[in-house]
Design goal:
mainly alpha, 5 helices, globular
């Protein structure tokens, strides 16, 4: 268990933006899990064209996998800044945080190219299908936001002595 002195020195090792990034990544992971749980339980709001997971096995599998992964990401984000995170090897925490950052950013990269094509007029928004609109304007930006938040948390959390 971390003592008060360890807690103070542990907190001082983090910049305010690393702390904000960690709490933001925590909220991101929890929100992601809750949305996927809602969809898994039959909700359709937010899905393109009234899709239902009951009608789409690949999306159902994605949700079943996404919920626990999102909750693990939530715990990881908190472990980077909370005293109980000192119980986990620091190198493992930082490596996992950077891996999570990379995964989320790489997942969003194809949409960044779509955003660029839309911005320069190489593609018109009305050419996009409902599913492409969902991915380009909602789903992929959410992945990019998570990647930025985890990146801030990982970058700003210094190793303790």
């Amino acid at each position: 268990m971390a003592t008060t002195t360890q807690y103070i020195s542990y907190r001082n090792a983090n910049s305010w933006w690393a702390t904000a990034g960690s709490y933001g990544a925590t909220a991101w992971g929890l929100a992601f899990a809750l949305v996927h749980l809602y969809w898994l339980l039959g909700g359709r709001t937010g899905l393109p064209g009234g899709l239902s997971l009951g009608d789409n096995l690949p999306l159902l599998i994605i949700d079943v996998v996404a919920i626990p992964l999102s909750l693990v990401a939530t715990v990881l984000a908190l472990a980077l800044i909370r005293p109980w995170g000192a119980l986990i090897p620091r190198r493992l925490l930082r490596t996992t945080a950077w891996g999570t950052t990379a995964l989320l950013v790489v997942h969003a990269l194809p949409s960044v190219l779509d955003w660029a094509a839309l911005a320069v007029g190489a593609r018109a928004a009305d050419e996009l299908t409902d599913l492409e609109r969902f991915a380009t304007f909602l789903y992929e930006p959410w992945f990019l936001a998570g990647g930025v938040l985890f990146g801030l948390a990982a970058l700003g959390t210094r190793a303790r002595r």
